[in-house]
Amino acid sequence: MSDRLAALAGLARRADLALFQRIAGADNPVLDRSMPALSRAADWSRLWLGLALLLAVSGRPAWRRAAARGIVSVVLASGAANGLAKLSVRRRRPPLGGVPPARRVHRAPVTTSFPSGHAASATAFTVGVALEAPELAVPVGAVAAAVGWSRVWTGAHYPADVLAGAALGAAVSLALSRGRAAPTRAAVRRGGSRRSRGR
């Protein structure tokens, strides 16, 4: 069983590398200019902080709640991805030999590769926002997907790093939602019980 799992893991790593190399060999001058800029904008979650600020000053209560939930989700997801997950896996960054210099990020990441902290934060913010303001799911999700793609296009991550980061970010945001909903349901049940006794 362990030999089979090891063989499958090796196959997955080779497929991941092959996909990364294929993307690195793609030629798109528009993406070469835009993706590094987008990737840098998402450093330290600046992009999500900026979007949260816009939502917070929108005057719409649901959008203000979306901003708060999104930022809390980013903080938790970023901590999980850049802390325990990276320390546990310790995957090296992709080889940059095949990535055109023009599209690489100017500041090479110093942390390990798996999972992508950028993708975790992007997805966590999107899910958090969408739970409070579903009408924002598509536009915010499109930005998050572009950030995830930028991490592969610039050579910062393998595709699997981004997918794993996105899954982690979504899981953290959904867990936060369930954690908030549980006390609310309990309060409703207690209120209903008190009303029943009062009859």
Q: What's the helix count?
A: 7
> What overall geometry do the principal axes of the alpha carbons give?
globular
The number of strands is: 0
Helix content: over 70%
Q: Residue ranges: pLDDT <50 for 5 or more in a row?
A: 184-188
Q: Please identify the oligomeric state.
A: single chain
The CATH class designation is Mainly Alpha
By CATH, the topology is Vanadium-containing Chloroperoxidase, domain 1
State Rg.
20 Å
Mean pLDDT: 89
Sheet bearing the most strands, described? Answer: none
N→C terminal distance = 62 Å
CATH superfamily: Phosphatidic acid phosphatase type 2/haloperoxidase
Structure at a glance:
This protein has seven helices and no strands. The chain has helices at residues 2-24, 29-41, 46-56, 61-89, 117-132, 137-153, 159-198.
Characterise this structure.
The protein has a single domain (29-183), classed as Vanadium-containing Chloroperoxidase, domain 1, CATH 1.20.144. The model is unreliable at 184-188 (pLDDT under 50). It is globular, with a radius of gyration of 20 Å. The protein is built from seven helices and no strands. The chain is mostly helical.
